[in-house]
Amino acid sequence: MENSIKALLSTVIHPETGRNIVESQIVEHIAATAEKITVALCFPKVRDPFALKIKQQVQEMLRTAYPAAATTVIVKEAAPKAAPAVEKRTQTGAIGRVIAVASGKGGVGKSTVTANLALTLRNMGYRVGILDADIYGPSQPRMFGVEGYLPDAETVDGEVCIVPAEAMGIRLMSIGFFIKPDDALIWRDAMATNALRQMIHQTRWGALDFLLVDLPPGTGGVHLAVISELRISGAVIVSTPQQIAVADVRRGVEMFRADKIEIPVVGIIENMAWFTPRELPENRYYLFGEGGARRFAEENGIPFLGDVPIVRSVMEGSEDGRPAVADDPTIEKFYREITEKIVENPAIGCR
Ligand code: ADP
Q1: Among the atoms of ligand 1, which is closest to the Cα of residue 107?
Q2: Which residue in 23, 113, 163, 249 has a CA-CA distance of 20 to 30 Å to 330?
C-alpha cells in the first residue's frame, strides 16, 4: 500500500521547482494501514510558501483514493541553514510608489482603511496592489472575498514568480494565503520575515502605480524587514480617538522618522471618529472626544488626512468581501478627500 501511495504522491508537483514531491524528497515518511494513513512532508526551505497548497493537494488525493482510511498529513521544515543567500531576483522593479499603512494597536481599522484606500486609488485610475504583511491577523483576503485563494507559481523570463490574487482590479498578496488562521499567532517575527521577503520579491506584481503595505500593529521585526526590502515612499498612520493619546502611535511615528530610516509620514487618518444614528443624520456623536488626531498631527508636524465615522456599511463591507467605498457614496467621499491628500503629498508626488 505504501508503494501505491508513493506512486500517487509522485504526481504532485511543487509549483516552484517543477519537480514531483517524491523525487525531490519532500515525502519523508509514509505509514499506512487500511484504516489509517500518515504522510510526513518535509520541506527543505524554511516556511515554504507552497507547503499549505501541497499539503491540501496530498490530503485531497489520499481521501479520494482511500476513502475508508483516516488520513493525516504532517508538514515539517528542515532545520534552517546558515545565513540564506541574498535574494537577487525581484519583481518589484515596476512598482511606482510603496505606501506603508501602520497603526499603534490592533483593531483600529488599519486593514479596513488599507482596503478602502486601495479601492479609492483604483477608482481614481491608478494600478494598485496590496501586500498584506499583518502576520497577527491577515485580513485582506476577507476584505476582498478571496480567503480560499492558494497562490500558484509561474515562470516569467526564466524566473519563478508567485501569482497574486486579483479582486476588484487590485492585486493582492497576503501572508494569510500561506498560513492557517490558527498559525498566525504563534508565528515569530523571524519566521514570518522569511516568507515576507519571498512574497515581496517573487510576487508577479506587474506594473503598479501604488503598492499599499498593511503592516502589523505596533513596531517590530516585520516592519524592519518591509522597510529594508522595499523602497517606501511614505507611511500612513491609522488611529481611533481612543488610541490617539496612547504612546504606541507616537512610537509608530518615531519608527518611520528614525535615523537612517527617514520615511516621510504622509499623514494620520482618524478612523471611527464619530457616530451618526440613521434616524438623526445631522447629528455627530463623538463618543471618545473630538479632534484628538488633528491635535496630535499638529503637535508632531504630521499632515491630518481626515476622519471616517463609525458606519455599519464599513463593517459589513469588510465582512462581505467588498470594501464600503464600492457601494456607499458617503464613505467614498470621505476616502476620496483623504486619498487626494495622499497623492498630492510631495513625498508621493503624483501631482
Ligand atoms: P485592524 O486592521 O486595525 O486590526 P480592522 O480593519 O480589522 O482593524 O477593523 C477592526 C474591526 O472594526 C472590523 O470588524 C471592521 O469591520 C471594523 N471597522 C473598521 N473601521 C470601521 C468604521 N469606520 N466603521 C465601522 N466599523 C469599522
Answers
A1: 4
A2: 249
Residue 184: the pLDDT is 53
Residue tagged 518535509 (cell numbers): 42
d(CA 48, CA 232): 26
CA of 311, closest atom in ligand 1: 24
Beta pairing, strands 95-103 & 153-156: unpaired
DSSP of 281-328: TT--B-TT-SSHHHHHHHHTT--EEEEEEE-HHHHHHHHHTS-GGGT-
Eight-state DSSP code of residue 89: -
More confident residue, 87 or 29: 29
Cβ atoms of residues 148 and 229 within 8 Å: no
What pLDDT digit, counting tens, does each position of 288-300 carry?
Answer: 888 889 999 999 9
Give Cβ neighbours of residue 6 (< 8 Å, ≥ 6 apart).
Answer: 22, 27, 30
Distance (angstroms) between ligand 1 centre and the Cα of 108 equals: 6
Give the Cα separation of 268 and 82 in Å (integer): 41
CA atoms of 336 and 324, how far apart (whole Å): 12
Rounded CA separation 337/342 (Å): 9
- Grid cell of 302 as nine digits: 504630521
- 107 Cβ closer than 6 Å to some ligand 1 atom: yes
**Does the pLDDT at position 141 exceed 90?**
yes
The model's pLDDT over 81-103, given as tens digits with 9 standing for 90+, comes to 444 444 445 677 789 999 999 99
Protein residue closest via CA to atom 26 of ligand 1:
315
Mutate to test the pocket of ligand 1, among 112, 236, 310 (most ligand atoms within 8 A of CB): 112
Q: Best mutation site among 272, 318, 320, 338 for ligand 1, i.e. most ligand atoms within 8 A of its Cβ? A: 318
pLDDT at 146 over 80: yes
Task: Give the nearest ligand 1 atom to 112 CA.
Answer: 6
